[in-house]
Design brief:
With about 375 residues, the chain is mainly α. It contains 15 helices and 2 strands. The protein starts with about 50 loop residues before the first helix and ends with a helix. The N terminus is likely disordered.
Length: about 375
C-alpha cells in the first residue's frame, strides 16, 4: 500500500508519487494527438466511440454540405429545364462563370493569409481597357495582350507594396485601388467602345474547346485550380500560407517570409485578374471601361461560400471549385427562369452572409454563453 505523499509546498520542485496504476493529471485520453489535441479513430473513451465521432466529423465538413447543395441545384435545374444537363448548357455555365472563377483562385490564397483584395474586378476592367485602347491605336494584338498583363502585374505590386511593406490595412488599400483602377480605365477609354478584334481570338468566347463542351475560360480555371490545389495542399509554400493566416507573428518567428509571400500573392492576383480581363474582352468581342463592374461581390462570395475563412488560415481548393460550380448553376437556372439581375444579386449577397455566419456560428454562440455566465 502506497502512502499519500501529501500536498506539495509552494515553490517546491518535488514530483508527487503516483499511486500504482494511475495516470498523471491532465494526461490526454488514449488515441489523442498530443500536438493538436484531436482524437484519432481508436478505442472508446468515457463511453464514446472515437472512430464514430471521427467519421461524423468528416461527414459534416463544409465541402460535404457543398456537395449536397450542388446536387440540389442540379436536381432543381433539371426539374425546371429538360436541357439543363445538355452540353450546350454546360458550355454557357462555364462561359458565364469562367472569369469570376479565375479571379477567385488568387483571392482565395490572399484571404487565407488574413488579407483581402477588393480591386479584382477593377483590375479586370483596367487591363481590358488597356488592351482595347492599344489595339485601337494599331498595336499588334499579341503586344496588346502582353501590355495588359504587365498592367496587372504593376497593379498587383502596388497593392502588395502598400499592404505588406508599408503595413496599411488591406481592406482600405484595395477599396482605394478599386476606385483608382476603375478611374484610370474610364480616363483611358471612356466613352468609346473598342471592337474589331481578330476572329481567331474572339472565338474563345463563342466556341467550346474541342468536343469537351467546356468554354476556354473554364478549362483555364480547371488547370489553375489543379495547380493551386497541389501548391496549397502539398508544398511548403502552401503550409506557409496556412501558417501566416493562423498566426502571422509565429510564422514570422518560424522563419517564414511573410511579407514576401503576401506580396507575391498580390502580384499573382493582379496578373490573373488582368488575364481574366483579356478573356472577358475576347468573349464579348468588345471593350468598354466599365467591364466587370460589380463582380467584386460575386468573387468574394465564391471564395467565402467555398469554405475559406474570412479570418484566414482555413480553406480548400476543392471547396472553392464546388462553390464556383454551384454559383454557376444557380446563375444559369435563374437566367433561364428570367429572374431579374437585382434578384440574382440578392441571392449572391445571401450566399455571402451564409458563408460568413454558419462557419462561425459555434464560436459566436460560445462567446454569447460566456458573456451570459459572467453577467450572472
Amino acid at each position: 500500500m502506497t502512502s499519500d505523499p501529501g500536498p506539495i509546498r509552494p515553490g517546491s520542485t518535488e514530483t508527487p508519487t503516483l499511486i500504482k496504476g494511475s495516470t498523471p493529471l491532465g494526461t490526454p485520453p488514449p488515441g489523442t494527438d498530443t500536438l493538436t489535441g484531436t482524437g484519432n479513430p481508436g478505442p472508446s473513451y468515457a463511453g464514446v466511440d472515437t472512430s464514430k465521432v471521427s467519421r461524423w466529423r468528416g461527414l459534416i465538413r463544409w465541402e460535404f454540405a457543398l456537395v449536397i447543395v450542388l446536387a440540389a441545384s442540379i436536381f432543381w435545374g433539371s426539374a425546371r429545364s429538360s436541357t439543363f444537363l445538355s452540353g450546350t448548357n454546360l458550355f454557357y455555365i462555364g462561359l458565364n462563370i469562367g472569369e469570376i472563377a479565375i479571379m477567385a483562385l488568387p483571392l482565395m490564397l490572399i484571404i487565407m493569409t488574413g488579407e483581402i483584395d477588393l480591386s479584382v474586378a477593377s483590375m479586370l476592367g483596367l487591363s481590358a481597357s488597356v488592351l482595347g485602347v492599344l489595339f485601337e491605336h494599331g498595336w499588334p494584338i499579341w503586344l496588346c495582350i502582353v501590355s495588359a498583363l504587365l498592367v496587372g502585374v504593376v497593379g498587383g505590386a502596388l497593392n502588395g507594396v502598400l499592404i505588406t511593406w508599408l503595413g496599411l490595412p488591406s481592406i482600405a488599400v484595395t477599396i482605394g485601388t478599386l476606385t483608382l483602377f476603375r478611374g484610370l480605365a474610364e480616363i483611358i477609354l471612356a466613352p468609346r467602345t473598342v471592337t474589331g478584334f481578330p476572329t481567331s481570338l474572339t472565338n474563345v468566347g463563342v466556341v467550346p474547346l474541342g468536343s469537351t463542351h467546356l468554354a476556354y475560360s473554364a478549362v483555364v480555371f480547371i488547370v489553375l485550380a489543379i495547380i493551386a490545389g497541389v501548391v496549397l495542399h502539398a508544398t511548403p509554400l502552401g503550409r506557409s500560407i496556412f501558417a501566416i493566416g493562423l498566426q502571422p507573428e509565429a510564422a514570422q518567428f518560424a522563419g517564414i517570409r511573410v511579407r514576401r509571400i503576401k506580396f507575391g500573392l498580390y502580384v499573382l492576383s493582379g496578373f490573373l485578374c488582368s488575364f481574366a480581363g483579356i478573356l472577358f474582352a475576347l468573349k464579348n468581342a468588345s471593350v468598354s471601361y466599365d467591364a466587370g463592374t460589380g463582380l467584386e461581390l460575386t468573387v468574394v462570395a465564391v471564395v467565402l461560400f467555398g469554405g475559406v475563412s474570412i479570418f484566414g488560415g482555413k480553406g480548400t481548393v476543392i471547396g472553392v471549385v464546388l462553390s464556383v460550380v454551384i454559383i454557376g448553376c444557380l446563375q444559369q437556372i435563374l437566367t433561364q427562369l428570367n429572374v431579374q439581375a437585382e434578384i440574382q444579386n440578392i441571392i449572391t449577397g445571401a450566399l455571402l452572409m451564409i458563408s460568413v455566419v454558419i462557419p462561425n456560428l459555434g464560436a459566436t454562440v460560445s462567446r454569447f454563453k460566456g458573456m451570459t455566465r459572467r453577467r450572472t
